[in-house]
Protein 1
Amino acid sequence: MNIKKELEHIKRIYDFELTSEQVQALDIAIESLDNEWVDVRDRLPSESGMYLVTVDEGYRKHTTEWFYGTSGEEGWDEDYGYENIIAWKPLPEPYVRSDEE
């Protein structure tokens, strides 16, 4: 079962019956599912950009951001350690204070 697709289906079908709070809750749930780690053995990014990655150096694992390119030579930017990237996910939106909106 694809939970994200099911939640999107519920939102689409029942949109006229849902309160604004329920729609907001569904949006938050759907967005959180987009932030799951993806194993590089399963899939690579489909768009160029910066991604949050987990790097396995053998003696430790750490998280950092890394560039993935899809035009020209497709793949991770070949800085030191790129071959040790084991998982990725989109970067979150930058934090915005409520008084700055």
Note: The first strand starts at residue 38 and ends at 39.
Protein 2
Amino acid sequence: MTAKTHYFRKEVRRMSSKREERKKAKMIEKMEAETCEYNKVKKPTNVVLNVLLAVMSLISILPFIFVVIISLTDEQTSLYRKSSVSMHTTIL
């Protein structure tokens, strides 16, 4: 057996082991995909859940936004309201 023949046989063994490793990796990926198939959420269900989550988050955030808006009202506006209320009560 010559050195060239020995080298080529060694290369063929190395290549076949790489092929086997790739085959095993693909088989593992395929098995994982099959087992994960049951954990996937379908598109319509995902849309419904996202809309529900968005509505719930708005319901929880909007009161805080309203409190901030109300607390930042102009002082003149609140004084105007107080004076107009006092004027109505004095007339009555």
Note: The chain has three helices and no strands.
Protein 3
Amino acid sequence: MDIGFAIMGIGLAIGMIAIGAGVGISKIVSTAVEGIARQPDAEAKIFKSMMLGAALIEGVVLFCALITYIMQSSLITVIEKLPVK
């Protein structure tokens, strides 16, 4: 197992988590703003749905970040146990 690739993979995972969250939340907000512009009377209902969707995306992001942190911690433990050349 090449440790360098594992570390690079963890970094890519963190970056993809951030990009995915940004794209998802921006899509929710843009659609909500568009919906409020078309139906100003439904602003409260659209806002609640938008916040619920954003909270669910953030929940998934935090879960993925936790898994990535656990992977990083276990990788550090493996690196510490490797014999020094």
Note: DSSP finds two helices and no strands in the chain.
Protein 4
Amino acid sequence: MTQEKISALFENQPRQWSLRGDPYLWREIVQTIGELPLPATEHQLMELLNSTFDRLVGYPITHQQDIFIERYAHGGMSSGYVCLRFWGEKVFPLLRARYSEFMATVKRVRVSE
């Protein structure tokens, strides 16, 4: 069985973004860690996502305010802004759920082999 990459969790973007900088952060996370193999545990995945988020954004995901990131500013009212609450309440849970689904599928395949 080939090793699945983290980018598999990012194949489908959220249906809706909160602020204009959010999709740029999504793409930058994929560019930063997408080629890494999926971690063995959900805990390791969340540690990697949190540390990558901290490094790219400059704040932990638990920060309570929207933040401005110059490299994501491409025009529009909320251009360059990232909604940390959206990432903490929607995006990271989405990625965690995708990871769990993937790992459950892998486990079923291994059992049936």
Note: Residues 36 and 55 are 17 Å apart (CA to CA).
